[in-house]
Amino acid sequence: MRLLLSDFKIFSSIKWEIIVTFFFRGDHPDYPIRIDGPDGVRPVHARYALTCAGLHSDRVSALTGCDPEPKIVPFRGEYLLLDPEKAK
Question: Is 51 within a domain?
């Protein structure tokens, strides 16, 4: 991961932990993506956008206008450890 991150930094800047409210197709020829945040926050213009949102990935995908499927459906699961003899 460190190698990929350092390679990425050569060509771009990285914004960590920003709040995104919407992605728009902008009118700038070099930076066609406009990423908006909460009111009062200056929008970010980009050529490419890579999002990493964990359990919120489906929500962020919908903000970009991409297909919202598959959806992330968190649930509380229970796991049981079976006796190896009874598992046969």
Answer: yes
